[in-house]
Amino acid sequence: MSALRILVPVKRVIDYAVKPRVNKAQTAVETAGVKHSMNPFDELSIEESVRIREKKSFPGGVDSIIAFSCGPPKSSDVLRTAMAMGADRSIHVETKDGEEIEPLGIAKLLKAVVERENINMVLCGKQSIDDDAGQTGQMLAGLLGWAQATQASKVGFEGERGVVVEKEVDGGTETVKSELPVVITTDLRLNEPRYASLPNIMKAKKKKIDKVTAEELGVDLKRRLKTIKVIEPPPRQGGGKVEDVDGMIAKLKELGAI
């Protein structure tokens, strides 16, 4: 029985508590001088990988947990956080500051890493909170020809190779079964990520981050889409009060809603 070799993509994004602002040129969101952290959905993926190991929920055990990031030099910070949470080592494809890589490019990089590292499970966040594309996991499964389970709220195992995933759907949950290898994208109900303790943060400084280039992985990261303009959404107009139901109906007719 083979053990799990888990790959967890993590992304450095503007912290979820920060209100994004459009830059003066209206070409992108302002990132200079703004607090960044690990994408919250990726935290769930790291946590779940570590829990699978700790709880010994897979019969063959976990051989390794590898964190991966494609981003600017400062992305090493989120890789260190991932290793402090329990990942064994990391892989970093470094890009220039401000350079955005499309989901398909990331999926191609992940495919190359999966093949190079002999990965049999990929756990990734269902989306990143900066572009909200929600495409990378699905594209990766398509490129690999693997089964996929999206928006996981529970991950379990059955037999030597079976994977059982409870996933979020409109109006409730749905349970799907597959066999390894598999791509799973994580949703908020899956777990509560741990805080990295100071001793683990110190240990993470000694763990290895492999620096590789897209060229070494045989991937072209050329963009296929161009952002023309980024603008703030128009401010919402305040609501109004009506005295009774008749007043509400009259107001709705006035607005053309009925």
UniProtKB/TrEMBL annotation:
PROSITE patterns: ETF_BETA. GO terms for molecular function: electron transfer activity. Its cofactor is AMP; FAD. Residues 26-221 form the Electron transfer flavoprotein alpha/beta-subunit N-terminal domain. Binds 1 AMP per subunit. Binds 1 FAD per dimer. One of its GO terms (biological process) is fatty acid beta-oxidation using acyl-CoA dehydrogenase. The keyword Transport applies. PANTHER family: ELECTRON TRANSFER FLAVOPROTEIN BETA-SUBUNIT, ELECTRON TRANSFER FLAVOPROTEIN SUBUNIT BETA. This is Probable electron transfer flavoprotein subunit beta. It comes from Mollisia scopiformis (Conifer needle endophyte fungus).
